[in-house]
Input
Amino acid sequence: MAARCRCSVIMAGMPSCEPQLSIVAPRLGEGRVSVLAVRLSAYAHATIRRLAEAAHPHEGCGVLIGSCEGDAVLVQEATSARNLWTERLADRYDMDPADIQAADRSARARGLDTVGFWHSHPDHPAHPSRFDSDRSWAGYAYLIVNTVAGGSGDLNAFGRDDEAACLQPIPLQLEAGQP
Output
Protein backbone atom coordinates (compact mmCIF):
# COMPACT_ATOMS: atom_id res chain seq x y z
CA MET A 1 0.00 0.00 0.00
CA ALA A 2 1.33 3.45 -0.91
CA ALA A 3 2.20 5.83 1.89
CA ARG A 4 -0.24 8.70 2.24
CA CYS A 5 1.08 12.17 2.80
CA ARG A 6 -0.67 14.40 5.26
CA CYS A 7 0.13 18.00 4.49
CA SER A 8 -1.50 20.42 6.89
CA VAL A 9 -2.28 23.90 5.67
CA ILE A 10 -3.05 26.34 8.51
CA MET A 11 -3.10 30.09 8.97
CA ALA A 12 -0.38 31.43 11.24
CA GLY A 13 -1.37 34.18 13.66
CA MET A 14 0.95 36.82 12.26
CA PRO A 15 0.34 40.53 12.96
CA SER A 16 0.75 41.59 9.35
CA CYS A 17 -1.25 43.13 6.55
CA GLU A 18 -0.24 40.20 4.32
CA PRO A 19 -1.70 36.77 5.16
CA GLN A 20 0.97 34.29 6.21
CA LEU A 21 0.87 30.49 5.94
CA SER A 22 2.39 27.79 8.05
CA ILE A 23 2.81 24.51 6.20
CA VAL A 24 3.59 21.18 7.82
CA ALA A 25 4.92 19.01 5.00
CA PRO A 26 5.64 15.29 4.88
CA ARG A 27 9.29 14.26 5.05
CA LEU A 28 9.53 11.78 2.22
CA GLY A 29 13.32 11.78 2.00
CA GLU A 30 16.33 12.97 3.92
CA GLY A 31 19.05 15.11 2.31
CA ARG A 32 17.49 15.14 -1.17
CA VAL A 33 14.52 16.51 -3.03
CA SER A 34 11.63 15.00 -1.10
CA VAL A 35 9.22 14.78 -4.05
CA LEU A 36 11.12 12.95 -6.77
CA ALA A 37 8.53 12.82 -9.55
CA VAL A 38 5.07 14.02 -10.58
CA ARG A 39 2.40 12.06 -12.43
CA LEU A 40 -0.16 14.49 -13.82
CA SER A 41 -3.64 13.30 -14.80
CA ALA A 42 -5.02 14.40 -18.16
CA TYR A 43 -7.81 16.23 -16.30
CA ALA A 44 -5.40 18.20 -14.06
CA HIS A 45 -3.13 18.92 -17.04
CA ALA A 46 -6.01 20.38 -19.07
CA THR A 47 -7.24 22.37 -16.06
CA ILE A 48 -3.83 23.95 -15.38
CA ARG A 49 -3.43 24.99 -19.01
CA ARG A 50 -6.97 26.40 -19.22
CA LEU A 51 -6.61 28.41 -15.98
CA ALA A 52 -3.11 29.64 -16.84
CA GLU A 53 -4.15 30.74 -20.34
CA ALA A 54 -7.19 32.55 -18.92
CA ALA A 55 -4.95 34.47 -16.48
CA HIS A 56 -2.54 35.71 -19.20
CA PRO A 57 -0.99 38.33 -19.22
CA HIS A 58 -1.00 37.91 -15.42
CA GLU A 59 0.37 35.01 -13.40
CA GLY A 60 -2.23 32.39 -12.65
CA CYS A 61 -1.84 30.10 -9.65
CA GLY A 62 -3.51 27.29 -7.76
CA VAL A 63 -3.31 24.14 -5.67
CA LEU A 64 -2.47 20.61 -6.81
CA ILE A 65 -4.71 17.91 -5.33
CA GLY A 66 -3.89 14.21 -5.34
CA SER A 67 -2.01 11.54 -3.44
CA CYS A 68 1.51 10.44 -2.60
CA GLU A 69 2.88 7.24 -4.07
CA GLY A 70 6.25 6.65 -2.45
CA ASP A 71 8.51 9.57 -3.41
CA ALA A 72 6.17 10.65 -6.23
CA VAL A 73 2.89 12.50 -6.26
CA LEU A 74 -0.11 11.76 -8.45
CA VAL A 75 -1.88 15.01 -9.26
CA GLN A 76 -5.54 14.30 -9.94
CA GLU A 77 -6.95 17.84 -9.84
CA ALA A 78 -5.81 21.45 -9.96
CA THR A 79 -7.63 24.41 -8.48
CA SER A 80 -7.42 28.13 -9.11
CA ALA A 81 -6.41 30.61 -6.42
CA ARG A 82 -6.67 34.37 -6.28
CA ASN A 83 -3.38 36.17 -6.82
CA LEU A 84 -3.08 38.72 -4.01
CA TRP A 85 0.08 40.31 -5.43
CA THR A 86 -1.49 43.31 -7.16
CA GLU A 87 1.57 45.49 -7.82
CA ARG A 88 3.35 43.04 -10.16
CA LEU A 89 0.69 40.69 -11.54
CA ALA A 90 2.76 39.82 -14.62
CA ASP A 91 5.70 38.35 -12.69
CA ARG A 92 4.64 37.66 -9.08
CA TYR A 93 2.00 35.65 -7.32
CA ASP A 94 0.83 35.30 -3.75
CA MET A 95 -1.95 32.74 -3.36
CA ASP A 96 -4.88 33.70 -1.20
CA PRO A 97 -4.55 31.55 1.96
CA ALA A 98 -8.34 31.13 2.05
CA ASP A 99 -8.22 29.52 -1.41
CA ILE A 100 -5.44 27.16 -0.28
CA GLN A 101 -7.39 26.19 2.83
CA ALA A 102 -10.60 25.64 0.85
CA ALA A 103 -8.80 23.38 -1.64
CA ASP A 104 -7.14 21.46 1.21
CA ARG A 105 -10.44 20.96 3.07
CA SER A 106 -12.15 19.77 -0.12
CA ALA A 107 -9.31 17.37 -0.85
CA ARG A 108 -9.31 15.88 2.65
CA ALA A 109 -13.08 15.43 2.59
CA ARG A 110 -12.55 13.16 -0.42
CA GLY A 111 -9.53 11.29 0.97
CA LEU A 112 -7.01 13.28 -1.08
CA ASP A 113 -4.19 15.65 -0.15
CA THR A 114 -2.67 18.97 -1.10
CA VAL A 115 0.44 17.72 -2.93
CA GLY A 116 1.73 20.93 -4.45
CA PHE A 117 1.12 24.20 -6.21
CA TRP A 118 1.16 25.49 -9.77
CA HIS A 119 1.62 28.90 -11.33
CA SER A 120 2.20 30.40 -14.74
CA HIS A 121 5.02 32.46 -16.19
CA PRO A 122 3.46 34.83 -18.75
CA ASP A 123 5.80 35.35 -21.69
CA HIS A 124 8.66 33.83 -19.70
CA PRO A 125 10.22 30.32 -19.55
CA ALA A 126 8.65 27.69 -17.30
CA HIS A 127 11.56 27.66 -14.83
CA PRO A 128 11.54 28.89 -11.23
CA SER A 129 12.74 32.37 -10.43
CA ARG A 130 14.66 33.14 -7.26
CA PHE A 131 11.38 34.54 -5.91
CA ASP A 132 9.64 31.19 -6.62
CA SER A 133 12.39 29.22 -4.87
CA ASP A 134 12.47 31.52 -1.86
CA ARG A 135 8.74 31.02 -1.30
CA SER A 136 8.64 27.24 -1.83
CA TRP A 137 8.32 24.49 0.80
CA ALA A 138 9.94 21.08 1.00
CA GLY A 139 7.63 18.12 0.51
CA TYR A 140 5.49 19.67 -2.22
CA ALA A 141 5.54 19.51 -6.01
CA TYR A 142 5.65 22.74 -8.00
CA LEU A 143 4.44 22.99 -11.59
CA ILE A 144 5.25 26.03 -13.72
CA VAL A 145 3.66 26.59 -17.12
CA ASN A 146 4.72 29.15 -19.72
CA THR A 147 1.85 31.18 -21.17
CA VAL A 148 1.69 33.41 -24.22
CA ALA A 149 -1.12 35.36 -25.83
CA GLY A 150 -3.52 32.72 -27.12
CA GLY A 151 -1.98 29.64 -25.53
CA SER A 152 0.53 27.92 -23.32
CA GLY A 153 3.89 26.27 -23.81
CA ASP A 154 6.25 24.27 -21.62
CA LEU A 155 5.05 22.76 -18.37
CA ASN A 156 7.79 21.70 -15.93
CA ALA A 157 7.91 20.12 -12.47
CA PHE A 158 10.14 21.05 -9.54
CA GLY A 159 10.72 20.03 -5.93
CA ARG A 160 13.06 20.85 -3.03
CA ASP A 161 14.32 19.55 0.27
CA ASP A 162 14.74 21.45 3.53
CA GLU A 163 18.36 22.38 2.82
CA ALA A 164 18.05 23.33 -0.86
CA ALA A 165 18.51 26.95 -1.82
CA CYS A 166 16.33 26.59 -4.89
CA LEU A 167 13.75 24.42 -6.59
CA GLN A 168 15.22 21.49 -8.53
CA PRO A 169 13.80 19.96 -11.74
CA ILE A 170 12.04 16.62 -11.24
CA PRO A 171 10.47 14.24 -13.80
CA LEU A 172 6.94 15.01 -14.97
CA GLN A 173 4.84 12.21 -16.46
CA LEU A 174 1.64 13.18 -18.27
CA GLU A 175 -1.04 10.54 -17.93
CA ALA A 176 -2.89 9.54 -21.08
CA GLY A 177 -6.64 9.83 -21.25
CA GLN A 178 -9.49 12.23 -21.73
CA PRO A 179 -9.45 15.39 -19.59
Notes: Residues 103 and 139 are 17 Å apart (CA to CA). The chain has one domain: 8-174. The chain has a mean pLDDT of 82. The chain has three helices and ten strands.
